[in-house]
Specification:
This protein is an all-alpha fold and about 325 residues long. Helix content is about 80%, strand content about 5%.
Length: about 325
């Protein structure tokens, strides 16, 4: 009976991850194509549809967990997803093959990421994240995206690059958009239910399961994209893209979740978030000071990210 329950929970986690991955990719594709049809500039698409769409799994899972009262999973998912992005996606990718670090993007987004991480660490030091604090985080994200849009517009309309209009019918875009959204919602529910079941059966804390299993699940799109880019000799998974995703997770995902429902956390949240500050600071330092993230530096970043999980396992 116990074995059957564990198998069902593990199956739910796997199905949830697959649904989140497919849902996010279809959601972004459908939304991007619809935006192109109505003449939305590529810059705006990148700052809104793509940036927020790739964080859709984190949004869905974090908000679902918060509304279900699993607040540790909510915050642990955000913290863990950033560790995955910086340690596994960025560090692991560079460990396999040296990765270019676009100077302008890194210098722009790096300090913002560090500031957002330190702000979140300070806000949850009292093991609480209230509605007002969540609203502040969400407003800061809007200000960040607005600043990027204004600076991009000042440099000209997307450097003269037009968005290609899709050849297929608009109904196909709408179907992908709706289908992707449904898959994300269903995947989030499956992942949360399965993860909670595994945590209960194994005597693990919500925080530990949230920062490892759930975070890996919601970061599946980024991991798959990184692997595909390396295999296809396309090093377009840049530090700038990773940093931007991490900023959205901290300010947007966590901000909206706290605004919907105040979050109360376990003491392990403080240690885990402080370690995230270390991982973030190291990633920004390595990318800002060099034009290329070397294999050795990538391996170091990967090791620090994996050490974070070890620390959480021991503390939590």
């Amino acid at each position: 009976m116990v074995a059957t329950a564990l198998a069902l929970d593990a199956g739910a986690v796997l199905l949830g991850i697959v649904a989140l991955w497919l849902g996010a990719s279809r959601f972004v594709a459908g939304a991007s194509d619809l935006a192109a049809r109505v003449g939305v500039p590529p810059l705006v698409v990148g700052l809104t549809v793509v940036a927020l769409g790739t964080s859709a799994p984190e949004f869905a899972v974090t908000i679902d967990a918060a509304l279900a009262g699993r607040t540790d999973i909510s915050v642990a998912n955000v913290v863990g997803s950033n560790v995955v992005n910086l340690g596994i996606v960025l560090g692991g990718g560079a460990a396999v093959r040296a990765m270019p670090t676009p100077g302008a993007l890194v210098r722009r987004d790096g300090p913002v990421l560090v500031g957002a991480t330190l702000l979140v660490a300070a806000l949850i030091a009292d093991l609480q994240l209230g509605r007002a604090e969540g609203v502040v985080l969400a407003v800061l994200l809007l200000a960040y995206l607005g600043r990027l849009a204004i600076r991009g517009a000042a440099r000209g309309p997307d450097l003269g690059v037009d968005t290609p209009v899709p050849e297929h019918r608009p109904a196909v875009d709408a179907l992908w958009l709706l289908g992707g959204l449904v898959a994300i919602v269903v995947g989030a529910e499956l992942l949360i239910e399965g993860a909670v079941g595994l945590a209960a059966a194994g005597g693990l804390s919500d925080w530990l399961i949230g920062e490892t299993v759930v975070a890996l699940g919601t970061s599946a799109p980024e991991i798959v994209a990184s692997v595909a880019a390396i295999r296809q000799d396309r090093l377009d998974v840049s530090a700038g893209n990773v940093f931007g995703s991490c900023v959205v997770n901290l300010l947007g995902v966590l901000g909206v979740a706290a605004a919907l429902r105040p979050l109360t956390l376990a003491p392990v949240a403080v240690e885990a978030t402080l370690w995230l500050c270390v991982v973030t600071g190291l990633a920004v330092l390595l990318t800002v000071t060099r034009r290329v993230l070397s294999r050795a530096e990538g391996a170091l970043l990967l090791a620090v990210g994996l050490t974070d999980w070890l620390v959480v396992a021991l503390v939590g």
